[in-house]
């Protein structure tokens, strides 16, 4: 095998390995935000919830997962960290802190269609 072909195959093998170890996933659905009455209460992760932090609740994502949330009606985005479980309303995929909801202009409507993106790492 000549040198250019060898380099190509090494690059190809490296690329496949990189993409199989970590992949970006997308979900679409409705987002809402926490009521003020939850401020100061413990979350499912054990952290104290604060409306002033960029956090969110998701039903299944591991705690600590970083998620990019895009409001599909205006294109605004925010990055949040999952630290709680929920939402428990049918059709909703994520509950945001008030600060996160404000960043994507969700507080007036209360609920919006969003897309969430996150990386899922392959377990060893």
Features:
124 residues; globular; 6-stranded mixed β-barrel; Barwin-like endoglucanases; alpha/beta
Structure notes:
It is a single chain. Helix content is 20%, strand content 36%. The chain has 124 residues and is of the alpha/beta class. It has one domain: Barwin-like endoglucanases, CATH 2.40.40. Strands 1-5-2-4-3-6 form a 6-stranded mixed beta barrel. The radius of gyration is 19 Å and the shape is globular. The model has no long low-confidence stretch (mean pLDDT 87). Belongs to the RlpA family. GO terms for molecular function: lytic endotransglycosylase activity. This is Probable endolytic peptidoglycan transglycosylase RlpA.
CATH topology: Barwin-like endoglucanases
CATH class: Mainly Beta
Series of H and E elements: HEEEEEHE
The percent range for helix content is 10-25%
Q: Please give the radius of gyration in angstroms.
A: 19 Å
Main pleated-sheet profile: 6 strands, mixed, barrel
Number of E-type strands: 6
Mean pLDDT: 87
Distance between the termini: 33 Å
The helix count comes to 2
- What is the overall silhouette? globular
- Percentage of residues in DSSP E strands: 35-45%
* Structural class designation: alpha/beta
Strand neighbour order, sheet with most strands:
1-5-2-4-3-6
Total separate domains: 1
């Amino acid at each position: 095998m000549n040198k250019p072909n060898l380099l190509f195959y090494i690059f190809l093998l490296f690329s496949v390995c990189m993409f199989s170890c970590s992949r970006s996933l997308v979900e679409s659905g409705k987002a809402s935000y926490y009521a003020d009455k939850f401020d100061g209460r413990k979350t499912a992760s054990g952290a104290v919830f604060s409306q002033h932090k960029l956090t969110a609740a998701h039903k299944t994502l591991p705690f600590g997962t970083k998620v990019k949330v895009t409001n599909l009606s205006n294109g605004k985005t925010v990055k949040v960290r999952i630290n709680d479980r929920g939402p428990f309303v049918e059709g909703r995929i994520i509950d945001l802190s008030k600060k996160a909801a404000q960043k994507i202009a969700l507080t007036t409507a209360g609920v919006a269609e969003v897309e969430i993106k996150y990386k899922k790492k392959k377990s060893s």
